[in-house]
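User: Good morning. I'm curious how adenosine-5'-triphosphate would be positioned relative to this chain. Could you predict the structure with it bound?
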Amino acid sequence: MNGTATAPIVTISGLTKRFGSNRALHDVDLTVARGEVVVLLGLSGSGKSTLLRHIDGLESPSEGSLDVLGERVETLSQKSLRSLRSRVAMIFQQFELVPSLTVLENVLTGALSRLSGPRLGVWTYPRALRRQALGHLDRVGLLEKAYERSELLSGGQQQRVAIARALMQEPQILLADEPVASLDPESSEQVMRLIREIAADDGLTVICSLHQVDLALGWGDRIVGLRHGEVVLDTPTDGLTKSQVMEVYGRVTPTAELRAIETELATESLLLTRGAEA
Ligand SMILES: Nc1ncnc2c1ncn2[C@@H]1O[C@H](COP(=O)(O)OP(=O)(O)OP(=O)(O)O)[C@@H](O)[C@H]1O
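Assistant: Good morning! Here's the predicted structure, ligand included:
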C-alpha cells in the first residue's frame, strides 16, 4: 500500500442487499483506504460480485449506505452515477473485450466516457488519446500487439488489454471481479503482479475478488472474507499464512463447508492445469 495515502476512499455501512427473498449481502461494514489493495475471498454465491457491483453503483442497496470517492452512491442521479463510474474502472473474469476490434481500439474505448459521441476506428480518436493508449499498452507489455485483433490474444494477454483499457479511464479505484479465474497459474501470477505494480505506482485503490487463497495472500494488503453475504474475516495479509486463513474460515465455518472450499480450490486448480495442458 502507498504509505502516504491512507484516507478512506470507500466507506460502506450496514449494507444489506436482498434479491426477492434471497439475501445476498447482510450488514456489511467496510472501509477501504486510498491506495489499498483489498482481496475479497469467499465461496461461490457469498456476495463478492454483488459487493463490487454496489461500489460501482450498478446495484442499489436494500439497506445501508455507500460512500465512494466522496459521493453517497445510493442517492445519486443516473447522470452522477455515470460520472462516478468513469472514475471507477472494472475488469472481469471474461475480459469483456470486443473480439473483432484491434487491441488498440479496445483500449481506446476506455476513454469513451471522456468523449462526446460514438467513435468507430482508431483514427476517429484524438491523437493524444491514441498516444496515451499506446503508452498503457507498453506498460502492460503488449505494445507490439496494438494492431492485432483482440480475439487472437491469449487469455492472460486479453486481461492485460482489459487493464490497459481500464487505465484509459484514469480511474481512482479499480474493481476486479475474479480477474484470473479463467487463466492458468502463470498468467494469473503475471496479471496479479501487474495489478499490484500499477496500484503501487499510481496510488490506485484495488478491490479484487479471488478464489485462490495463495494469490490473495501474495498480492493483497488485506483479505476480506465473505460468507453468506456477511463479512467473516477482515485482516491484513502481512504475516498471515494460508492455514490461518483456512482456520479463520474454519472457526466460523462448519467442517463440511470448509471441505467444500478445499474441493472448490482443488477442482479449480485441476481445471486450470488441464486448460494449460490443452
Ligand atoms: N441479479 C440478481 N438477481 C437475483 N439474485 C442474485 C443476483 N445477483 C446475485 N444474486 C444472488 O446473490 C448471491 C450472491 O451472488 P454473487 O454473484 O454476489 O456471489 P459471488 O461470491 O460473487 O459468487 P461467484 O464467486 O460464483 O461469482 C447469490 O445467491 C446469487 O444467486
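The mean pLDDT is 88. The pocket of adenosine-5'-triphosphate is lined by residues 19, 22, 24, 42, 44-50 (CB under 6 Å).
Let me know if you'd like a different ligand tried.
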